[in-house]
Amino acid sequence: MDVVIERACGMDVHKDNITACIITPKGKEIQTFSTKTVFLLQLIDWVKQHNCTHVAMESTSVYWKPIVLEAEDIEFLVVNAQHMKAVPGRKTDVKDAEWIAKLLRHGLLKASYIPDRNQRELRELVRYRRSIIEERARQHNRIQKVLEGANIKLGSVVSDVMGVSASDMLNAIAEGEEDPEKLANFARRTMKKKKEELELALKGYINSHQRLMLKTILKHIDFLTEQIEMLDQEVAERVSSHQENIDRLDSIPGIATRMAQQIISEIGTDVKKQFPSAAHMCSWAGIVPGQNESAGKRKSAKTKKGNKYLRSALTEAAHSVRVF
User: Fold this and answer.
1) Predicted model pTM
2) I need a surface site. Which of 13, 25, 90, 134 has the fewest CB within 10 A?
3) Dihedral pair phi/psi, residue 211, rounded to 5°
């Protein structure tokens, strides 16, 4: 096989240590480093001393990120472990780094998509915001369970138990109010037409521990809402230079501003550079059926995992579009 990269480094990255192998025309050298920052700097210096232009890493989770942050002037390839297993050769814990370096030199490795630093930071913020939004939704469901446990059927009358009128009623219940008539008086606007239904729905048997749970959950929801608003502002500032792309995505049925920001954070703005076609991007996101046919028989066409954040966003968008 022809050598494509003259000076290559292969790394087997774990939580607490990194085994690195550098192969040059002069030979090979293998060392193991701790993942603490001081030793990561020593690792990068060691790679630079050997004038390595490319580094390939087999890594799980996010253990590869600190290495890339410390040396952005070197071309890094984060290699899919599944792809590594598909290439025949020696595979033991000791030989991993050497094998990665050899495959890299001969151009047999396919790099995973690694966005630039700004996009990685935006990704972290958007993904964290999504997790908080999901947590707030779980708290909304928990409130519904507490109310059902007290036989308060507020959810049967109002469409949103965290709406303005319903929130006022819940806060009053948490503070000790039991009179259904007084609670129904918190109804606003069109909700006033349902006062009789509200009085019947709000008559229940709520105990002290349920009031405590309601009060705690409501405070938690308020806190989560504040955090979401703070992250909204930060994300909006970071994507302000891509507002045209956000608006274009926002114009698509089923996609709102937050979802548009999530799509931008996952695939970036220079899509053609990373994905040759729409089919490639869909495959990367894991939203296309698999191709598994042998001897004229079609086998399981289960989709692969792909990018779960982009996949869930696109799935959510598809479900929200009504077909007339």
Assistant:
1) 0.81
2) 25
3) -65, -40
